[in-house]
Design goal:
single chain; alpha/beta; Rossmann fold; 5 strands; 62% helix; globular
C-alpha cells in the first residue's frame, strides 16, 4: 500500500508542472493500491481554488478528475487516532503540520511507502523510516 502526497497528484495532472514527468514515472512504478486521505482532498480544493479562477463546480470536477486519473483510493480517517499518533512523531520529525498529518495517516493505515516531492520529508527519510517503518520515495523539489 502506498500513500500519495498531494504535491505528486498535482504534478501528475498538470502538464506544465516542472515535476509532471517525474510524477508520471513515480506513479507508474507503484505496485499495489495507492491511497490518499480526506486531508489530501481538502488540499486539492485549496490549491485549485487559489491557483485558478474557477467556479465551485469546476473545482469539484477538477478534484474528481485528479482522483480518477491518478488511480488513488480514499482512506476514511479516524482523526482522533491520527492526532494522538502525530503528537508522538512531532518532536522527532519536526515537520510542518500537514506533512506530519499526511505521514501519520500513512503509518496508522499501514502504508509501506510514502510518495512525495516534499523536500523536508525526503531529507528526513532515514529518520522517518527508522521511527515509523515507512519508506519514503520521491524526487526532491
Amino acid at each position: 500500500m502506498s500513500y500519495i502526497d498531494t504535491n505528486v497528484l498535482i504534478a501528475y495532472i498538470n502538464p506544465n508542472d516542472a515535476l509532471h514527468n517525474s510524477a508520471i514515472e513515480l506513479l507508474s512504478k507503484i505496485e499495489g493500491d495507492r491511497y490518499v486521505s480526506d486531508l489530501t482532498i481538502i488540499e486539492l480544493y485549496s490549491v485549485f481554488s487559489r491557483a485558478m479562477d474557477l467556479k465551485d463546480i469546476e473545482i469539484d470536477a477538477l478534484v474528481k478528475y485528479t482522483i480518477r486519473e491518478t488511480g488513488v483510493k480514499r482512506i476514511d480517517i479516524m482523526w482522533k487516532n491520527i492526532f494522538n499518533r502525530a503528537k508522538e512523531y512531532a518532536y522527532a520529525l519536526k515537520l510542518k503540520t500537514l506533512d506530519l498529518l499526511h505521514l501519520t495517516i500513512a503509518v496508522v493505515y499501514n502504508c509501506s511507502l510514502f510518495i512525495t516531492f516534499d523536500k523536508d520529508i525526503i531529507r528526513k527519510s532515514k529518520i522517518i523510516e527508522g521511527l515509523t517503518g515507512i519508506r519514503i520515495q520521491g524526487y526532491p523539489v
